[in-house]
Amino acid sequence: MTEQTADPGTRAAETERDAAVVRDALGVGVAVGLSGFAFGVTSAGSGLTLPQTCALSLLVFTGASQFALVGALAAGGNPLTAAAGAFFLGVRNAFYGLRLSQVLALPRAVRPFAAQWVIDETTAVALAQPSRRGARIGFTVTGLTLYLLWNLTTLLGALGAEAIGDTDAWGLDAAGPAVFLALLAPMLTTATERAVAALAVLLGLGLLPVLPAGVPVLVAASAAPLVLWARGRRAGDAAEGAGREGER
Predict the structure, then answer these.
(1) What is the pLDDT of residue 247?
(2) Confidence (pLDDT) at 1
(3) 188-216 burial, b for 16+ CB within 10 Å, e for fewer?
């Protein structure tokens, strides 16, 4: 009798948790998906055709790399150089995939399809969940919502590039980074994590005026090993100092 009474309550709590994850995932997907307008307008303004613009969102589906590519092309850069920069900027998704493969533990047949949705936002939502079930729901809902909306708004942005006008005035290009930072901030719970984030911001913003688009982000990734190296050296010095005190 006790188990039968507990089951409905357990299921109700689980349903409530799932609903909360879905709400959060939908919020992220909708907020970031609107940035597709800005990409569609920017891509069309860079001289890419409508099929080329839509193909980038359908096949590449990582906003930072897409913006880096069309931005370099708009600045008159070599297409191969622009593509190389976009590629290296998207390499971070491979590292996300290594972590998510352990968290989600998806069947092998599903992994190639899920890999298309391994981006900043889906990773942040999935890793923010306390359980594998929640991580799977968050990843799936965020990925599906964002993929559909991103591609739809890319199409609308490319079609209505002239009517929309200056994307900077709308602030659409800032929606994606703003949402990702809002997701990331609560996860910085230790001094080391906050130090890595602060150094990455300093490197990224400091190098932005002097390096080509996309490169400051890659350099900012060095913040983690630098902080960990400094922490390890400090711990080693402290241990050495304690050893000397013990010898006395």
Answers:
(1) 63
(2) 37
(3) eeeeeeebbbebbeebbeeeeeeeebbbb
pLDDT by 10-residue block (mean), the chain, 248 residues: 56 83 91 85 85 93 85 76 80 89 92 92 91 94 95 91 64 58 71 88 85 73 87 77 64
Burial class (CB in 10 A: 0-12, 13-18, 19+), 23: exposed
Cβ pair 212, 240 in contact under 8 A: no
Compute the distance between CA of residue 33 and CA of residue 50 in angstroms, rounded to an integer.
Answer: 18
Q: Which residue has the tokens 């006395």?
A: 248
pTM of the predicted model, to two decimals? 0.69
Query: Are 50 and 158 a contacting pair, CB within 8 Å?
Result: yes
